[in-house]
Amino acid sequence: MKCHRVSLFCVVIFTLPALAQSIPNATSVAAPPDINAYIQGAWDTLSRSMSDCHSLVDPKIKAAPILYLPRELPMPEKVAALQSKCNVHVERLPVRVQHFGEIKPRDIGATGLLYLPNPYVVPGGRFNEMYGWDSYFIILGLLRDGRIDLARGMVENFFFEIAHYGGILNANRTYYFTRSQPPFLSSMVLAVYDAEAARADTPEEKAQLNAWLASAYSYAQRDYSLWASNIHRAGDTGLARYYDVGEGPVPEMADDSTYYVDAIRWLLAHPQSDPGYLVSLPDSPSSAEMAKVDALSCDVAISVVCAHAHVNGHWLTRDFYKGDRAMRESGFDTSFRYGPFSGSTHHFADVGLNSLLYKYELDMAHIATLLQKPSDASQWKLRAANRRAAINRYLWNSARGLYMDYDYTTHKPSTYVYVTTFYPLWAGVSDAAQAKAVEGNLKLLEHSGGLAMSTYDSGMQWDLPFGWAPVTWISINGLEKAGDDADARRLASEFSRTIEENYAHDGTIREKYNVVTGSSQVQVTAGYKTNEIGFGWTNAVYLEMQHLLASAKTAQP
Questions:
Q1: Given 324, 333, 405, 544, which residue is catalytic?
Q2: Considering the entire predicted model, what is its pTM?
């Protein structure tokens, strides 16, 4: 189905099943093509741009597509053409957005896609927009496949978001204006810079690349400042937390209307495990009672999802929704890592987040050195040293040999074993003794099909028995950086085999796998219950793992 041949009506009904058909999906094919050929083809199949009609479709929100331009941006020619070709409605944002949180989704009206100037690769399935942390791994895959220009364009799209949307968003949809995603911008910038430097031959090319790096540095400073601001401050620990500036249930859960209801029912069935996430309010509040529902839970008047999120006089508290939103900024939606359904995410200094920020600070010191800014480099190194000290104070559990999150509201460390314990190895936080201790705990999370997210089977997709490509690669790469090549290669072999065997079975690559059974057939009890096909970051991580394994073979005597 060619999008340029469809009318507005056709675009509206072009939802998830039809969209999935545009992705290599060979459930009925006996012999799928070579997996590397599948991945190479998927970069184009999963590419979107402002000249393609199907880029506008949002399987999560069943509504006519709208494209929003920044208030201050002149109408791009390709958007004008898109209007007529796709019969799509184009609007401008009501205000010029200069700072994060300056505009609220409810101030915009109908939800829609936010304009980006360059083509980008989406994850796949219901995720038909450019995501924050997905893109880092996708960029690694693009660079591994020699698609440098596409990778660089995606990084520059993030610069555009910072300049025109106030910061890097969860993804380029209007309902994501309230949160970001894990901070990988410095890693993306350096990955593209290194690839470009390898092909820059002339003085002119090198000068242009240096100018690009200087521009990237200024955008990264602005991105970092969001994570150093009060909204992301984890009390007085000197560490950061995830936080969403919005209120109430997230709009994108409209396509999974049972999620919040499922959470309420679970809490009712397990009252001893309820941290106080439930509040008693009438199922059908009167006009006079609406204000109380809004004050204690969510605003029925502005949220269709809120209006359905109650069971037998029980609603979720406003604080639960803050945690729910923070969890989604973390990218780990959903697990029981921060209480049931991670409803207390915003109360924790997060191991993964602070490891990423430590690496960000070191990356910025490196970039400042390349740009001959020694004073800046010294300041970034000092920030990194202070964060490392705070990580060691609050997040390192020497008795268990694990990095664990810290509840700064109760002043207690978490006891939840999670795969992000490997992030400090990847970021360079760990010393040799700490790395060795973490390596000794691999057995807690390793299964025949790869690394599981946690040791607890909550029924959620970001817990046991599921394994995901992005954290698997960070763990593998972290072990490799720490000098544990044997464990890194074994984990790469296990997860590669899981991907390959499932690909051979149905000709697809998925967003997640059951690493206990080694299957792509998953059973999730609440939240996103599907296993999306595509899939951007899994494709990329597979290429990275294959490169690691091939390099190991070459290095053998």
A1: 333
A2: 0.93
